[in-house]
Amino acid sequence: MSWLSSDSMPPLTDTHTPDLQSNIAVIGAGYVGLVTAAGFANLGHRIRLADRDGDAIAALARGEVRILEPGLSEILAAARDSGRIEFFTDNIEAVGGADVVFLAVPTPEGSGGQVDLTFVEAALTEIGAVVSAPTPVVVKSTVPPGTPGRLLRALTAAGSNSPLVLNPEFLQEGRAIEDVMHPHRIVVGSADRDAAALVAGLHEPLGVPMIITDLESAALTKYAANAYLATRLTFANAIAHFAESVGADVSDVIAGLSPDPRIGGHYLQPGPGYGGSCFPKDVRALVAAGDSLGHDLKLFRAVVSTNDDQLDRVVAKVSGAVGPLEGKVIGLLGLAFKAGTGDTRSSPAVALAIRIVAAGATVRAYDPAAEVDIDGIEIVDDPIEAARGADGLLVATEWPEFAEIDPARFAAVMRGRSVIDARNLLDRDAVVAAGLEYQGLGR
Ligand code: UDX
Fold this sequence. Notes:
Blueprint: E1 23-27, H1 31-42, E2 46-50, H2 54-61, H3 72-81, E3 85-88, H4 91-95, E4 100-103, H5 118-128, E5 137-139, H6 148-157, E6 164-166, H7 176-181, E7 186-190, H8 193-202, E8 210-213, H9 215-246, H10 250-257, H11 279-292, H12 298-322, E9 329-333, H13 348-358, E10 362-366, E11 377-379, H14 383-387, E12 392-395, H15 400-403, H16 407-413, E13 418-421, H17 428-433, E14 437-439
Helix pairs in contact: 1-3, 5-6, 9-11, 9-12, 11-12, 12-13
The site of uridine-5'-diphosphate-xylopyranose has 20 residues, from helix 9.
């Protein structure tokens, strides 16, 4: 798959500085932990990577990286070959001899949208029994505002006087290695200035702005970043929706907004709603964090519900185009939450498929990197097969390869004529020229 090729791999930065080497323990070898470990290894630090999943650690020790992220396996292989990374299944062993400990354990969504901190607190309790000042304990996992005090209490209750530091990540899937090696900024929060300086110092060779602040501000910065971007996407979808009511073309409207440097062009592409492992969970968690403090974050509540409504709007477009969905066949192009990844977590494409199936239709889906096992969704291994016999074709993920297919090839195999482009990806004129009926968002 082209997006995994080494062409897309960012070059290794040669910032290896032996005299600045630290021993860094990273607890958690999931997505964030692996990318964090790779970033520090690439800066020349020695990594002690731990995960209680023995199979995952054994695979990593053999040089197998199960997470698809351009450049990740190459950096981990280089670190392994040069002996700069060791693997552990025991957290206590991993933190032994570490100058600094990073926690990158999961923070799943609890009932009611609030974040479940069980894994973070358990890890703090476990390692708190053996780490002490001046070794900082750095939480890389995303923890909501209002909770750092609780984390500090878990650490001290375990008998540790280690300083607690928050160092949120801003990694985008599919470009996480680029993001970790060339970040826009590093945010470090702690009540302990020396600990914050030590953690900031680890990132010094990156030469990027460092924001050193308190724990709550660091936690809020992460949520504010994701809430801002999610709000921006919701704004774009709201403008696209209104554009339909007035007969405007949202693509031209965005083209008219973007040159203004106060606005810019990123994160304004209308779509079926934001998805992925971060935005949906984090915006809900921010609202829940506000609720728990008696603070009604109305703006973000509206973002959450507007984003949910977007799925209904797209399904309504599909049924508007093909008629009642009962008994219909819908070809679905895309299952991943965005192009460039095989991740279907909180994927709007999958959510659309589930709704369409619930309305009585059959979905034939193709994605170059993702699949799902859900009743009513048939996975095919070719985009033309997804269109075969379909009453309507729905584009749900913006894989560039979908736009490269001659729409006449879809027209030749479809039963119906409707193409619903929920990513405004296809060339509208080419679709119409192929004898199909095109509907995008806001155009
Ligand atoms: C995001 C943040 O970008 C990252 O900083 C944070 O650490 C984790 O969450 P990611 O989940 O990888 O990263 O996805 P991103 O590329 O930001 O896209 C999020 C969602 O917005 C996707 O569903 C995507 O399709 C959608 N999107 C993005 C749009 O609909 N339109 C756009 O213009 C951009």
